[in-house]
Amino acid sequence: MTPHIRLIGAPTDVGAGTRGASMGPEAFRVAGLQPTLEGHGLRVTDWGNINGPANPWQAPVGGYRHLAEVAAWNHAVHQEVHAALSEGEMPMLLGGDHCLAIGSISAVARHCRRLGKTLRVLWLDAHTDFNTDALTPTGNTHGMPVAVLCGHGPAELTGIGGVSPALQPSAIRQIGIRSVDAGEKRFVRESGLEVFDMRYIDEMGMRHTMQAALAGIDDSTHLHVSFDVDFLDASFAPGVGTAVKGGPTYREAQLCMEMIADTGRMASLDVMELNPALDVRNATAEVALELIESLFGKSTLMRRS
Predict the structure, then answer these.
(1) What family is this protein classified in (predicted)?
(2) What's the pTM value of the predicted model, to 2 decimals?
(3) What are phi and psi of 4, to 5 degrees?
């Protein structure tokens, strides 16, 4: 059945250390996200933008920057994403910075608990985002959402979905990782996160990586993709606040997306951290749009399923 996609904009950079991701949702609209997807026969409704508090741009307090504002945005995201799922639609959250995945994925986890579905999260990112107040060098919560979802963080964030932790590390597969803070490395290892970093991809190739990351998915799986645009190599996707060299090439990224599409299991999506203030003529938004097309089944040839 053709999914009915609900676009949900979350225009904030409250969890980031660089301003500009708040303009991400509009950059995707300018790039033609809705008409492009509709051109592939998909049903798409743009629900506009969520409202939330302004970014106060203050120093960290107790290891967290803007905790009250981050919590408010994530509560709002949680409600909108959960409403879309409850009404049988596929939410596509347009960020905004990656702290918003706390609200999005906690809503997906809540939905899966209600339906008895198995949740698999593919975290496409240059960073593991597994910091805590004790580990973070910055206090920026866009470096913490995976840890929060796994129950490590303040109650204002870990309790958003009504259950803490929202999910176990075993539900997550991280792909494209190449920047992890010093203290975060040990915590990632101790927590048992399954991480396919760039060395793994270099040695094994993207095809093998995706086969491993997608192993075990079946009819009872809800597949959620959290796509941080800094997953991509900065040479062709500069419009992000935390660009890191040495990411997947354009073709590697396309293969990643096409293999996700081949499963037919993607049921929700975040597209995060696009920063038009650092982009060049909206080129990063356009590249990301091409990859989103592939996530929804665009391919060079008509392939056998």
Answers:
(1) Belongs to the arginase family.
(2) 0.97
(3) -95, 110
Question: Does 152 participate in catalysis according to the annotation?
Answer: no
Q: Which of 129, 184, 270, 293 is catalytic?
A: 129
Domain 4-295 part of CATH 3.40.50.2000: no
Q: Is 40 annotated as a binding residue?
A: no
Q: Which residues contact 6 (CB under 8 A, 6 or more apart)?
A: 45, 47, 84, 89, 90, 91, 92
Q: pLDDT tens digit string along 83-100?
A: 999 999 999 999 999 999
Q: Is 98 part of any known ligand binding site? A: yes
pLDDT of residue 303: 63
111 annotated binding-site participant: no
Where do the structural domains in the chain lie, given as residue ranges? Answer: 4-295
Closest CA to 145 of 161, 61, 59: 161
197 catalytic, yes or no? no
Mean pLDDT of the region 235-245: 96
125 is catalytic: yes
**For residue 117, what is the DSSP state?**
P
| Cβ–Cβ < 8 Å for 156, 67 | yes
Q: To 10 degrees, what angle do helices 101-115 and 67-86 make?
A: 40
The rounded distance, in Å, linking the Cα atoms of 104 and 81 is 6
Asked if 94 and 9 touch (Cβ cutoff 8 Å), the reply is yes
Percentage of the chain modeled with pLDDT above 70: 98
The pLDDT confidence band at residue 299, using thresholds 50, 70 and 90, is confident
Task: Spell out the residues 6+ positions from residue 57 whose beta carbon is closer than 8 angstroms to its own.
Answer: 19
Average pLDDT of every residue of the chain: 96
Q: How far is Cα 196 from Cα 212, in angstroms, rounded to an integer? A: 9
Higher local confidence (pLDDT), 28 or 3? 28
For 10, residues 6+ apart whose C-beta sits below 8 A from its C-beta are: 25, 49, 50, 52, 73, 76, 77, 93, 94, 95, 96, 100
